[in-house]
Amino acid sequence: MFKSTVSRAAQQQKPSSLALPSIRRKLAVGTVVTVQTSESLRTIAPETSAAFRITRVLCIFFMVYVHVNPGLGTGEQLRGTQWDLWFFHTILADLLGRASVPALSVISGFLAVHTLERRSYRGYAAGRFTTLFVPMVVWNTIGVTYGYLIFKTIDEKNFQMENIDELSAVDIVARRILALDETAAYTSHNFLRDMFVCSLAAPIFVALAKRSGWAIPAIVVLAGETIGFEPVVYRESILIFFVLGIQLAISPGHISWLRDWRLVVAIGSGLVLAAEFAAVDFPLYQLVKRGIVSAGIALAALYLARLPLGQKIVAHEPQAYPIFLSHNFVFGIFWGAWMVVFGSGLTFPYVVFYLLTPVLLFVAAFRARRFLSGLPGAIRVPLFGK
Questions:
Q1: In angstroms, rounded to a whole number, what is the distance separating the alpha carbons of residues 320 and 260?
Q2: Cα–Cα separations (whole angstroms), residue 103 to 30, 98, 242, 287, 376
Q3: Cα distance between residue 375 and residue 190, in whole Å
Q4: Helices 190-200 and 98-118, packing angle to 10 deg
Q5: What one-character-per-residue DSSP string does 66-117 give?
Q6: Domain residue spans in the chain?
Q7: What's the pLDDT tens digit per position in 227-249?
Q8: What does the longest C-alpha to C-alpha distance in the chain come to?
Q9: Phi, psi angle pair for 224, to nearest 5°
């Protein structure tokens, strides 16, 4: 299903710099590729599109491991004490999970280019508002409400959550719900906040990239690593990889070239893995690490797109974003139930909780897919963005 019928030459063909009309080419099995003018890039190659869908599912699956309770910082608690759990946490959360943010940022930037060619800026911004900002506000509100109820009914020490009573109304609305300073009620939703801001600025970076090419991502990297982008964007890597995605959409216009770099990506991933376990750190290490690992995820997706397994992964794509939006809330409930029986310690059998919770969430969401898709739009859109 996902095998591309587009030849490598067709995939890599660059848009003409001349103002020529669009050319439609029918390939051997009827696949249609549109090569458009300099004012409008061609449609996304089927192989790249399939790889993006697989990458989304993989990234969200690994990303939720970062937030399995008790959450951020767990890895440092495990270093040198519980080697088995630390090993899993390092691979799933610190490497694959944290690299998922750059990978998703690249995809968002890439797709922004194509969306802006088909829709007005107002339509594009409205879509991103509905998809990113509205669900963020809704789930942060749910998180604040849930936290308040927990503190009113259960000993707060048993739940590693913030005491809402200590916050002013302004703090709750501006910081925890709207995430204006990257302190959202649910930490993962800070990504949505920054991504929404990046999306609003997309036309600027698209215009700059078309004019100046790869100099723009280089300048953004330099600016991000020296002066930063706060308070506009709090995590500079999100904007850096978003702009990289924009440039990749303009030239070369696909990600099939990653296959030619598979040896470099494999060696780089091995070096990053060794550096992570050796606690190596140096300037730009986090950016390099996440870039290499995210490239590895995308490369794996390219190969999976040709296999039946790729079809099975894509079947989970409609549930992936709802899982991302809701996983902090669901994990909190799971964690509360777990602590009632096993306590809050990280010794065995906590490793079972850590490894299985994301898997169970994906299975449950897939089983509930018909129910979720059947929800009225007035409920489904605010909760899940579509």
A1: 29
A2: 31, 9, 9, 12, 31
A3: 26
A4: 30
A5: GGSTT-TTHHHHHTTT-HHHHHHHIIIIIIIIHHHHHHHHHHHHHHHHHHHH
A6: 8-384
A7: 999 999 999 999 999 999 999 99
A8: 69
A9: -65, -40
